[in-house]
Amino acid sequence: MTRGARPLLSSWILALVFTGACATSSPPETAAPAADPAQPTDARAAQNSDALDPGRSAGVEGDRVATPTISGMPDAPLPADTPEELLGRWWAQPDDPYHTFEGPVAPDAGWLFLAGGGALPADVMRRFVELAGGPDARIVVIPTASGEERLGPSWNGLSALRRAGARNLELVHTRSRREANSPEFASRLDAADAVWIPGGRPYRVIDAYLGTLTHDAIARVLERGGVVGGSSAGASILASYLVRGAPEGNHIVMGQGYERGFGFVRRLAVDQHLRARGRVNDLTEVVRRYPYLLGLGLDEGTAVEIRANQARVLGAGRVYVYESADYSGLRPPYFYLLPGDRYDLLGKRVLR
Q1: Which residues touch 221 (CB under 8 Å, ≥6 apart)?
Q2: What is residue 120's predicted lDDT score, i.e. its pLDDT?
Q3: For residues 133 and 148, which has the higher predicted lDDT (pLDDT)?
Q4: Backbone φ, ψ for residue 171 (5° rounding)
Q5: 181 — phi, psi (to 5°)?
Q6: From CA 142, how far away is CA 290, in angstroms rounded?
Q7: Residue 81: CB atoms within 10 Å
Q8: Is residue 143 within 8 Å of 198, Cβ to Cβ?
Q9: How far apart are CA 197 and CA 235, in angstroms?
Q10: Which of 61, 167, 230, 279 is least buried, going by the fewest C-beta atoms within 10 A?
């Protein structure tokens, strides 16, 4: 466990023992409201305020949750117009639910850079530019999640990268799957050293690019040793399981028909804006429904860089880790990592 979670297990077990003893001698009572998870004062208070409240909705809308298949996976196939030659690509393979006790699998080549939204510290953005190859690296920015249509060199979504020293930025954008599936459009990423996907609504990116030649071109940036990153929705999209993808609203955590991400990290779900928007409990529902998944919840102003199954926390906040291996109540449903902490995604262990 990390320093953020180390003192929590003993207090969790004592609470259970105390609760069980009380239940035998007194009638059940309504639990007191949980404290605001956005305002933790220390590790123990953070766990108490963030603990799963069975009476609190995790934002799951019943008729929008995909019925799990017999293998415990969401019904989230690639779009029907996915080119046949892409169906064998690594990112196109479905997650394997039988590896429940193994963590996510990240590609061996390249870097993934997942940010939790909000104002990212300057050193976080400078690290992204450094991984891309420095100020002169060619960085392709895909602004499709934003919903804006007036895009150009002065678009304010480029300002954080420019402040971090990036000088060679190119916007690549379409809302047409037909265009995204054209070799001419996808070739605009052939020389890219990095790809950055800013925030917005993830369904817009999924509708335009999932299963297209452009999706594959982004994957090839990783294969060349480049970096692919995103913030907020742009971070969630990169995992195999997509949270908050429903077009109806981002309050729906598991949106039927929009549960498949780009698949650049397998068996992973990523949420963002965690404490700022009161989302600490939400990924617990996701990994409970799909036990093969690991969940990462990113605070605003915080990022993780991932290479070859190892993740390192950057920035100013926390990264919450959600594991489904034990819901007996004998351990907390999650713990958190702090800036500088490292985590082995595949082995599900903190690295010292």
Answers
A1: 110, 140, 189, 192, 193, 194, 195, 227, 228
A2: 96
A3: 133
A4: -85, 130
A5: -90, 5
A6: 30
A7: 10
A8: yes
A9: 8
A10: 167
Return the number of other C-beta atoms located less than 10 Å from residue 251's C-beta. 16
Residue 309: which of 263, 266, 352 has the closest Cα? 266
**pLDDT score for 331:** 67
Residues 345, 9 contacting (CB under 8 angstroms): no
199 close to 233: Cβ distance less than 8 angstroms = yes
| 318 token code pair | 């926390």
Contact predicate 115/230, CB 8 Å: yes
The C-alpha atoms of residue 291 and residue 228 are separated, in whole angstroms, by 27
CA distance 243 to 60: 10
- Rounded to an integer, what distance in angstroms lies between the CA atom of residue 48 and that of residue 69? 34
CA distances for 126 relative to 37, 113, 129, angstroms: 30, 12, 5
Whether the full predicted model's pTM is greater than 0.90, yes or no, is no
Beta bridge partners of 112: 228, 306
Alpha-carbon span 142 to 217, nearest angstrom: 12
Cβ 68 vs Cβ 74: under 8 Å: yes
Number of other CB atoms surrounding residue 157 within 10 Å: 19
d(C-alpha 310, C-alpha 298), whole Å:
16
Q: What is the distance between the alpha carbons of residues 250 and 64, in angstroms, rounded to a whole number?
A: 12
Please give the Cα distance from 6 to 150 (Å, whole number): 49
Other beta carbons within 10 angstroms of residue 61's beta carbon come to 16
pLDDT in tens, 279-333: 999 999 999 899 889 999 999 999 999 999 999 999 999 999 998 755 555 667 8
